[in-house]
Every structure is written in structure tokens, then in C-alpha cells.
Amino acid sequence: MKRKLAFLYALGLSLCTLAQGWPAGYGGVMLQGFYWDSFDDSQWIVLEKKANDFSGYFDLVWVPQSGKAAATKSMGYDPLYYFNQNSSFGTEAELRSMITTFKNKQIGTIADVVINHHGTNNGWFGFPAEVYKGVTYQNLSTDVCADDDGGAAATEARKTGAQLSLNNDDGEGWGGMRDLDHKSSNVQKIVKAYENYLLNDLGYAGFRYDMVKGFAASHVGNYNTAANVTYSVGEFWDGNANTVKAWIDGTGKRSAAFDFAFRYTVRDAINQNNWSVLNGSRTTGINVDNGAYKQYAVTFVENHDVQDRGTTSGYTPDPIRKDTLAANAYLLAMPGTPCVFYTHYLAYPKEIKAMIDARKLAGVTNTSSYQNYRSSTGYYANVVTGTNGNLLVVVGSNANQLIVPTSRYTKLLSGYHYAYYLTNDAETPWADKASGAYEGDNLKVKLTAVSANAGAKLVYTTNGATPTASSVQVASGTEITLPEGETTLKVALLAGGVVGKVITRSYKIAATAPYTPEIIRVYVNTDQVGWNSYVNYHSWGGTHTATSWPGDKVTSKTILNGKTWFYKDYTLTKADDYVNFVFNIGTASNASANQTVDIERVKKTSYFEVASTKDNGKFTVNNVTSVVTGIGGVETDAQQSKADKYYYTLSGQRLTGTPTQRGVYIHAGKKIVVK
Predict the structure, then answer these.
(1) How far is CA 477 from CA 27, 244, 389, 448, 600, in A?
(2) pTM for the full model?
(3) Which InterPro entries match (predicted)?
(4) Pair 551, 452 in one domain
(5) What distance in Å separates the CA atoms of residue 179 and residue 197, rounded to the nearest whole number?
(6) How far apart are CA 60 and CA 77, in angstroms?
(7) Paired strand residues for 596
(8) Which of 67, 130, 297, 546 can bridge 259 by disulfide, Cβ–Cβ 3.0-4.6 Å?
(9) Minimal CA–CA distance to 77: which of 155, 176, 154?
(10) Which helix (H) or strand (E) holds 325?
């Protein structure tokens, strides 16, 4: 009997642990698989094709709200249907296929749950009825908060004779749609059925709750208990860590929360070019709390709400405008569950995957502890305790100038304003190239032995076989070359003649495709700051030779959509080429007082507007390409397009001649298909 009681008690503890809003000691990494208006990149069929690329790196992928929305083309934050899963991102069948493919690759899919508010399709209170498994679900006018829309809903209800809930909103109001009363038994019944459908029918792994300031935290706790969900994270948009912690407590610790305090600390360090600001995260980020909250911190540095959306009306962008790699390096080394933003991953896939390799090799989890190693204006360094070793992360403009003792640490990675080191007692091999697809005749991979044994070597195979002491042996720091084709590289540490830990990398190496140099045109409008006669283009990056400060004086102008644009052409010489810019006016001695922030990794014909607002003393810039252009970078002026003799790709890049590869191009204002 005692054994039975002990078993039941242990089972109860296990179930309670499982029902928690986020697992403790979790070493996974999440990807936000969309950005604002990512209707192409985040289609279910597109994301599904990336499953192999994500596998082994992203354990969770948060996708857009998948139900049919009120608008024809929508990001899903105007929900209309719960059980109709045909959205702007694909059909229900495509959604199910993606979720299943992800699951087969050990990737969980996180649903965007938008339940604060709901749309109507028949007046103010005409919610659609839905039937699921023989049961009809429909929000009613009595499910709308009594004070919805600042009293406007009550006024409308009096006009139409509708009856609202007797309860006021128990969170912040929002005037976009009808705010639901989560004290209503009908609302609770619908949400619980909906979440059961998401988890147990569609196959989602967990929830991201939108706009949780709009209703009481206790409702999230109740919904999660009913769903028995393992992964739940709420968007409690607040930079004060204490209020975020209070929300987590309000859920009964049955949900994690996005760590906005962490995000704002990283943003401030970058914007102020003062990396010691990260010291503030010890008191402002919930991921650095040494108590019970690190487990519930989902950290991030940018998302769809703060990204630069061009000229979206009524919207103030707050993106990470520079040092994206350093921001992600810090994010991926620290405790909490990191959530990588999709635009960052699309720009730096190999670098970010290598950082994730280092995090997982060290065994950093959401509850890891850390200590500050160094702090200054030019760099900031922490030692994070992993289950397999201690990871030293250094970020900042002088990150690679910090002298780290080789007697204690071995360098794994370094790049623009960041570096990773691992303590020698980790006793592990390391390969500096992440798994994935590469272009080039050969791929060079540097193998490193992380060991307290100074004579440690490495043994490896390229056919997927487990290395032995008789396999190919090399010294630490050796760079091996892998040929074209698919290679499964396995590397093991060899110390004292004993084969130790083994790591695996899978590469698909393709020969470099012939590339025709392409010309991009970079436009800038400076009406808001009054730079009317010329603009200096200071440019660098990629294969482009950097200009001397303050850059090339540009006077060429054109008028598009009623605005005057300066423009200059640049030639890209390879597929992954790009150019960085700073726009300014003045001479070398005084241009710094009238310059913009950095614009990074421009790869196609683009349009920028210099705004009158400033960020750390520099004018901000909005990318308005999608607003100005008709098709991804081609001028919308009809006469100019028809007279243009050049061919353009759909991404806006101008070819130097007639296209030689199959595809769709723009020429003389028309789409041209080359077969």
C-alpha cells in the first residue's frame, strides 16, 4: 500500500511539473517564425520546407495566429474564427502537414493564441457560430465587457437593444475589436475547447498568449490547467521586471512571460554604445533573477511589434538598428529560453546556428546561473554555468580585444562585436561550422579540442561512423576541407589515448552557382531634415570598398510618388553580397553632427526616408521600399518603367544584361518569364 501511495504521489508531482507553464532546466531555443507582413516567408508550406534546417537548433517555432481572420490578408490579430484554420498563411491541411513535419523533426509548434478580443461579421455583436465535433460555439453580446471600447459598445448596445456582460474588463481595454469577458462561462467554454483543439487535434505543442494585459492573469492559469499545456508564454508588454513577475504569479506560475526588461536593456546598451548598461539586466531582467523566475523568462531582442515596419500609420518602430549579431550572441548565451526573431535568422542563419551549437554544447538552460566577468563601455562579459561547462560570452565594440586566459578558456566563436569561449574542463570537441547547406567548391571547418589536457587531439570521420582512436587524427585548431555533396562529420576528443565526447555535423555542400553581377539602386528622401542639394552616401560591407568619411557626395535626383529622392547605384558581385550605409551631410569634420543611424545589409534596390527623430543623436531612417515600389524595388512611375531598358529580379535587383537563368523578371514595366 505504501508503494502504491508513493507511486501515486510521484505521479502527482510529475503531472504537476508537466502542467507548469514552462519546464525548469529547459535547454531549448525558440524561433519566432514570422515578422510583420511575412506573408511569403511564413507560409506553412515555406516553413515546412525549412524543417531540416531548423532541426537540432530550434526546439520550438512560434508561428502566426492560424485561424481565419476578419481581414482578407491579416497577421491574425483580428481573429474571427477559432476552428476554421484557413488563414493568410495557408490552408488547414498545409498547417497540419507543417506541424506534423516539425514534430517528426523534434520541433514543437507554438500557437499564437489571440483571445483578449474577437471579431464580428455581422455588426458590432454578430459573432460567427462554429460547430466542432457536434457542439456549437459562439460568442454572444453578453460575452462583451460592459465597458468595451471606452463605452462605445454600450452606446451601440442601447441603439440595437443588445445586452452586454454585467462585468467590466478585468484588464486593459482595446478599441480595435470586441473585448471578451473572461469571467463569462461561455467565453471560458469556447477558449478551453479551442485550446484543446489546438493541442490535441492540430498538434500544437504550446501557446503564446497575445496581449495578456487585456485580461486577468488568473484566466491564463485556469486555461493552462484545463489544457495541461507544457509550454505557455504571455505577451505582458512591460519593461518593469517586477510587474512581469507579478503577472507570472497571477497565473499561479502556470505560464512563462516574454522578458521585455531584458530586451530593453540590450537595446539601450546598443543604442548608447555603452555595453556596461547590460549590468542593469541583473535588476531589470526576469531571466537574471536567482530565484524562481528564470524558469519563466522567454528572452528576446526584437519581435514583430518593435521591428521597423516602414511607414505603418500610428506606429513607432523600436528595432535593434545595429549590432544584431552581438545582441543575438548575448541572447543565446544567457539563462531563460531565448526566442530568435525571424528577420535576424534570415540575415545571419549560419552565425546564429553556431551560437546555438555553443549554447547546447555548454549545456546552458533557462535556469542556469551566471557571474559577471568584465564590464566596461567597450565590452561586457558574463560566465554562464552550463551542465557541460561554463560559457563565457563577450559582446561589445571591443569584444575581441578582451584578453581571455587560454589556461582556463578555449575560444569557440568570434565575429563582429562578439566572442564565445568555453572552459577547458568541458572536455569536448568543437566544429566551427553549424550543420546546414553551404555553397562553394569546398567547405573549410575548423576543429578545436576543448580540454584541460594540453596534448588533447581530435579524431574524425566524414561518413557518419563513430570515430575511434584509429580514425583520422588532427591537432586542435586544424582546418579540414569537405568536398561537394552531403557529409556527416563526426568529431571526437582524443585525450590520453582515450576517445571522449563525440559531436555531429551534417553538411550539404553545393558548387557555387554561376552568378551574374547585379546592380541595385539605393534611394533616400531627406525632405524631413532639409537636406535638399546633396546627400553623402558613406558605404561599406560585402565586397564593396568602404568610402572615406563622410562618403560619396550624391546629387542625382528623381521624383517618385510626389517626393524627391537622391539615388546611387551599387554592384553586387556574389549571391550573398550586401552594402551598409550611413547618410549624412557636411564635411569630414562636421558630418557626424548630421548623420543617420547605420543601415545594415542592403541587398536589393531600396528606398529610405530620413526621419526628423533621433536615436542617440543620429537621425533615424525608415525603410519604405514596400510603400514606394510596385514589385519589390521596381519604380512605380509608369513612364520611367516603360522607358527603362534594364531587367530586374522580383526582389528589385537590376541585372547588367539580359537574364541567363530561368525565372520571372521585370522589364519595361512588365513581367517577363525566361524559360
Answers:
(1) 28, 45, 20, 5, 32
(2) 0.80
(3) GH, GH13_cat_dom, GH29D-like_dom
(4) no
(5) 22
(6) 21
(7) 619
(8) 297
(9) 176
(10) helix 324-333
